[in-house]
Amino acid sequence: MTLSPRQQIRQQVRLLRNQLTSSQQQQSAQQLVEQVAHHPRVATAKNIALYLANDGELNPIELIKHLWQQGKNVYLPVLHPFNKGHLLFLRYQPDTKMVLNKYGISEPKLNVTLVCPVNQLDIIFTPLVAFDSQGNRMGMGGGYYDRTLANWQTNKTPYPIGLAHDCQLVEQLPVQAWDIPLAQIITPNKTFNAQILS
Question: Residue 80 sits in a domain of what CATH number?
Answer without folding.
Answer: 3.40.50.10420
